[in-house]
Design brief:
alpha+beta; 4-stranded antiparallel sheet; binds zinc ion; elongated; 4 strands
Length: 70
């Protein structure tokens, strides 16, 4: 029952956020414990976007550049 209630809250945009990963000094990847959705949060612009394939690829590329020290 509690889980159903959480899902209902998700539908109205009240997710149970938790931090997945620090992407940079200004951005973080977050997820919801109830519905398992994920987002990317950018602090300076206060933007909140769905963690889709494009965003995933973007940060995978950034990570790769950091590792290769480019
Ligand atoms: Zn949710």
């Amino acid at each position: 029952m509690r889980r159903m209630w959480s899902r209902l809250l998700c539908l109205f945009g009240h997710h149970s956020y938790f931090k997945i990963k620090e992407l940079s000094d200004y951005s973080v990847q977050v997820g919801c414990t109830s519905c398992s959705k994920q987002w990317g949060m950018h602090h300076p612009t206060k933007s909140f976007v769905d963690w889709d394939e494009d965003l995933k690829n973007l940060y995978a590329t950034i990570d790769k550049c950091k590792k290769d020290d480019l």
